[in-house]
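REQUEST
  id: r-88c1
  op: predict_structure
  target: Spore gernimation protein
  payload:
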Amino acid sequence: MSPCLQDNLKRIQDTFQDCNDLTIIPWSYGPSLEYKAFSVYFDSLIQNKKTNYMKESLQDLVTHEIGPATTITPEVIKSFFANNGVSAQSANVEDDFTNAVNSVLEGSIVIFFDQWDKALSYCAFGIQLRQVAEPITESVVQGPHMSTIEDLETNIGLIRFLLKSSRLKLQSLTAGKESRRKITYGYLDGVVNPETLSEFKRRISQIDQEEILETSYLEEWIGDSRYTPFPQVRYTERPDTAVAALLDGKIIVMVDGTPTILICPGLFFEYFSSSEDYYHNTVYSSLIRILRIGACIIALLLPSSYIALTTFHSELIPTILLLAILDTREGIPFPAFVEALLMEFFFELLREAGIRLPRPIGSAVSIVGALVIGQAAIQAKIASPVMVIVVSLTGIASFALPQYSMSIAIRVLRFPLMALAATLGGFGVMLGLLLSFLHLSNMRSLGQPYLSSAAPLDVKQFRDIFVVFPRQILLHAPRNRHLHKLKGGGRKA
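RESPONSE
  id: r-88c1
  status: 200
  body:
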């Protein structure tokens, strides 16, 4: 930073050349207005009502309280703004030009003074953000109805509000040379696995030069396997889900500018649970959990099983049902595999169209399109009614999975299983499942086995896979062994 005001002004103008929303206000202060200064900020980032008040306050400080003969020091400036500041955050004294430029880019007003090799900056960020509201992608009937938003500080506050613990540790870093996104990760000290935390810190330290625009950008650095359809981290917009993950020994990651919270490591059986499972009666929650697992099996195996049975193993189908299927397939010019492939393609196309279209018409287009195309395909003898039912049930079953990333993996695996069923029949389906299980058994997420609690078997964690045990049992037998030791062998967490 130069003590010459004109040098600093020229550097600012050169740095922000062709930035039309940049505002530079030169002004004078003192009894005879002999002292010069200028303020610099982005109109598009700050609250305009703060700029004039800031200038008047500083002029009043210099003229009446300090005096024209007194040298302005960082201590005086910081003391004044700490007691009479115009911002919710305290002022900062910048002694490096790069830091001053970054402050302007982050929504601060920076003041340069003549004959002073430092600058004063204070936060005046004024971008309008949405308020905390109900989650869009994770709506629940019972439980908290608040969601994270695009403001990182608000999201951290929501986590702190729900988890009032001194052992909740939050650490931040900045990633990206251009975007300079602030990333905050948190964990519960004494609960998280130290080896997992050490490995996570090693991996996330490698992204300091990467442009991170959304939380999902971090998945490739955190995950162990890049070329796999199965997700290795979880995403949520619910603070209560993030807090439950922290209590279970997980690590959460938040990125400024996005409402999504990343939870790692993500293990296979965790993708079939929802936060609402623990807000309902044990019997009902267990029934819903079993229903989701059944939906996963249907979404993965129903088309391939139908192709294998009708093409290779028709003797396994009851005679009356077989005759009904043959009657509906009369006149169909395609084999079962091509028929299923066409209908799956149409269904996936409608699904994507419903997502990309505006919300008021997206659902209508997807529902009407499915009815029209299904009926037209039956009348045109392109697909049989049974195949339309199979594809529809498969799609509905994939919607029942609480984690969208896992439903994508199921959708991807469905097509190779269909191809194996069309070529090798039931043996091909079993071969595909065997290869999938081998792949899952070999996968790890932040060093932990992907099928943890089932392989290797952990009886304490296994109780929360297929059924939801009563809360008294779950709370007195923590799923995380580090928490179990910390609480002295199973006291209520």
